[in-house]
Amino acid sequence: MTKKILLFGISAIGDYLEFGAWCLGFGVHMGFSKIFHDLVKNFSKFPGIGKRSAERMVFHLLKMKPEEVRGLAHNIEEIHNHIKPCKFCNNFSTKDVCSICEDPKREKDVICIVEEPKDIMAIEKTSRYRGLYYCLLGSISLVEGIDIENLNLRKLINRIEQGKIKEVIISTDPDNDGELTAQYLIQELSRYPIKLYRIAIGIPLGTQIEYIDSATLGQAMAERKIIAQFFYFFY
Ligand SMILES: [Zn+2]
Asked: What is the reported pLDDT for 146?
C-alpha cells in the first residue's frame, strides 16, 4: 500500500513537472517568443556560446533583479564609448594610446603582430616580452571570406617605412587562418630591412610526448634548436 502511494506521488510530481515545462514552452512560444528568441540569437553570436548556453543565459536574465539587468544593459551600451582601439597598435584602451605603447620602458623598435587584443593579454602574462604590439583585429579566413584588404596593416607599414622598427615577430594563431595570415605577412614585410620572426610552435609544457598530436610534434621537430655542439680542432 505504502509502495503504491509512493509510486502515485512520484507519478504526480512527474506530471506536475511535465505540465510546468509545457506551460513554460507555451509561454515561450505564445508570450515572449520574439524577445526571447532575438536575445538567444544575439547571445549565440558570442564565441563558444551555442544555442543551449544562450537559452540558459536568457533564463538567467529573467531571474535577475530588474535593476541588475538595467546595470548590465548600461555597461553593454557604454562599452564603445569608453574602450576603443589604441591609435598605434589597435589594442583596446580607455585612452587614445594604450598603456603598452605609452610605457617608456618598452623596446620601441620591436613589434609583435597578433590577431586579437586577447592575444596581447596572453603574451603579457608571460612577462617574457618587452617590445610593442600590433593587433590585426582578425586574420585572413577563406571560410569567412576575410581577405587581405580586411587586414589593417597601413599603420604598421608606415612605422616600418619610417625606419622605427628593427624586428617584427609574427604571432598569429598556428591554425589554417593564422598560418595563411602569417604567410601573407612574411611576403609583405620581407621587402623591408627588418628582422622577421615567426613565433615558435612546439610542445606544451607539462605534457607527455605520446599525447601530443602529430602535427604539433612534427612542427616541434622541424623547429628544434641546438643546445650544445662539439667542435673538432685540427692542429
Ligand atoms: Zn597601443
From this structure: 64
**Distance (Å) from CA 135 to ligand 1 centroid:** 9
Residue 7: predicted pLDDT = 44
Output the pLDDT for position 155: 87
As residues whose CB is below 5 A from the ion ligand 1, the structure lists: 86, 88-89, 91, 98, 101
Q: Residue 169 phi/psi, 5° resolution? A: -110, 115
CA of 38 to the centre of ligand 1 (A): 35
Q: Per-block average pLDDT, block size 10, for the chain (235 residues)?
A: 46 46 49 85 92 94 94 90 91 94 96 94 92 91 70 86 92 89 91 92 83 84 79 65
- Predicted pLDDT of residue 11: 45
Domains in the chain, number? 2
**pTM recorded for the entire structure:** 0.70
**CA 101 – ligand 1 centroid, Å:** 4
Q: Beta-strand (E) ranges in the chain?
A: 84-85, 92-93, 107-114, 131-135, 167-170, 195-198
Alpha carbon separation from 153 to 176, 206, 218 (Å, rounded):
20, 36, 31
| Dist CA 160 CA 165 (whole Å) | 5
- Please give the residue range of the domain that contains residue 124: 110-222
User: CB within 8 A of 28, min separation 6: which ones?
Assistant: 36
Residue 208 lies in a domain: yes
> Is 9 inside any structural domain?
yes
CA of 49 to the centre of ligand 1 (A): 29
Kindly state whether residues 16 and 120 are assigned to the same domain: no
